[in-house]
Amino acid sequence: MSRLAPLLALAAIACGGGYEDYCRDNADCAPVLTCFRNRCLRLEPVPANLAWEIIPDGMPPQFLLTPQTGQPVPLEYCASGVRGDTGDLGRVRLDFDGNVLSVQGFCGFEQYEVSGEFELPLPPGRWRMTAYPEGRPPIVRSFGIQACGFTDLGTLYPSRSANFRFRFVMGGGNPAPRCGIRVQAFDSTTGDPLSQALEVKLDSRHRCEPPPEGWEIEIAEPQQGGFFNLVAETLDAAAPVMRRQTQTILWREDPEPFVLETRSSTAEKVLIHLLDPDEIPVAGAAIQAIWPPEKKSSLPDESTCMPRRFAADGDPFGAFRSPPATPTATPGVYELWLPPGPYRFRAIPPAAADLATTWTEDFSVRSGKSVLLALQLRRKWTLEGSVLAAGEALGEVQVRAVPLSHSLRAASTRTDAQGAFRLRLDPGPYLLLAEPRQSDLASTWIFLQEWQDAQQVKLELPTPRNLAGIVRDASGEPKRGLSNAVVRAWDLGGPRPVVAGQTVTDAEGRFVMRIRR
């Protein structure tokens, strides 16, 4: 399974095409133009902060940076990736996540199943591999890949490990066994998984009958020795409820059995009365209780592409994320059953409603007390603006708002005859794109990181910049042009990578595309 893509799966901006005078050589063109692909083109210097993606027909994609500023741009497709051997581990699932070209926010993810010797394509960059052998603890490796090179991981050997036995009990003075939970060990320092996930399930009659000697988990030794975090979370909705429990344990080769109190408790009933700004009940919404609150930052950092798999947050209550609330027979009233503790409630209204996703402030559920919570949704924010070309209003331009946060929704519209547009959006960060139909104009975009309700923006469509080049296959001798290969230019100059242009090579590997200035 392959999901190699930047953090934003932004649709490519249509560039290329259009009419230029036919030519056979430079003598047929004006002095400031160059004859390329039988067209007279103005070939200006290649802008900085561009990355190239080449997708040959039937071959894996490749990414590259080039310092070339003159045109035509010579691009060479060559293979890169990773090789190794699973050895005695047999069949192994390999997950790769990383920063393509070592650029923060330019994320890639690949997943393979291999056995024995393997050689897998990956673009240049910084990568983290997590190998999941059957029935053994995961193996984590971090490495870099150079352009046109393969990083050799050698033979994968099982990590040094020990078998730990646990008894999970209700806690709070109740020694009854606890099932219906999911348990996994993580490195306290790196956050990497040290064990496979153990699902402690109820039996077919929804009873909890653990083995007499307790549940066994094979746990790899932490990278720097010392401690690991054992994390337990609710697995089965039919089981008693609990918030996430984390226990820090010293890793030993000959561990003694552990008893983990899960602090399971009776769930408390929470009714949420969801209203719009006019206090009319809202049906069809998705409501969840979440703790701790989600981070709001939309800017990429070192953890964007290779996030920490687990980080102990030090919260004494423990994390929790409920299933969606259940609608009741009363319009606009939803029901949740939650363990005591603090929460924030998130309500996502139906997509067709002019209502914004809304969060509550911190709210505590107390033991033995049912709760009726009134939650009033806000209206969506208004983003208005105009699209201009050479100072003149331009109609029928597609304008898209691409969310930079997973909890937001995309929206699109077209400008009217006066070049005006209006979008209703959830509050939050977006990439705003203006994409004209005319081939003599380039698309443009801006990032909306911090903005307020009823904001006005103006988008000026520039005269496009022509980019011309040739793609050659450097894997063999002599090098040959790659025909029918997709070529994308990525703009890395903003907070997130954006597809600035896309085209396809001709029979000799040559291409022309248009991007904004």
Textual characterization of the structure:
There is one protein chain. With 517 residues, the chain is mainly β. It has five domains: 26-77 and 464-515, no CATH class; 81-155, Carboxypeptidase-like, regulatory domain (Immunoglobulin-like); 161-261, Immunoglobulin-like; 269-376, Immunoglobulin-like; 381-425 and 428-461, Immunoglobulin-like (Sandwich). The chain is 0% helix and 46% strand. It has no helices and 42 strands. Strands 22, 23, 26, 27 and 28 form a five-stranded antiparallel beta sheet that branches. It has a four-stranded antiparallel beta sheet with strand order 4-3-40-41, with no helix packed on it. The chain is flat. The model is unreliable at 3-19 (pLDDT under 50).
Mean pLDDT: 89
Name of the CATH homologous superfamily of the largest domain = Carboxypeptidase-like, regulatory domain
**CATH domain class of the largest domain:** Mainly Beta
Structural class: mainly beta
Q: How large, in whole angstroms, is the Cα Rg?
A: 28 Å
As a percent range, the share of strand residues is: over 45%
- Architecture (CATH level 2) name of the largest domain: Sandwich
Distance between the termini: 37 Å
Shape: flat
List keywords for this structure.
mainly beta; 517 residues; 42 strands; Immunoglobulin-like
Q: What's the quick description here?
A:
With 517 residues, this protein is mainly beta. It is 0% helix and 46% strand. The protein has five domains: 26-77 and 464-515, no CATH class; 81-155, Carboxypeptidase-like, regulatory domain (Immunoglobulin-like), CATH 2.60.40; 161-261, Immunoglobulin-like; 269-376, Immunoglobulin-like, CATH 2.60.40.1120; 381-425 and 428-461, Carboxypeptidase-like, regulatory domain (Immunoglobulin-like).
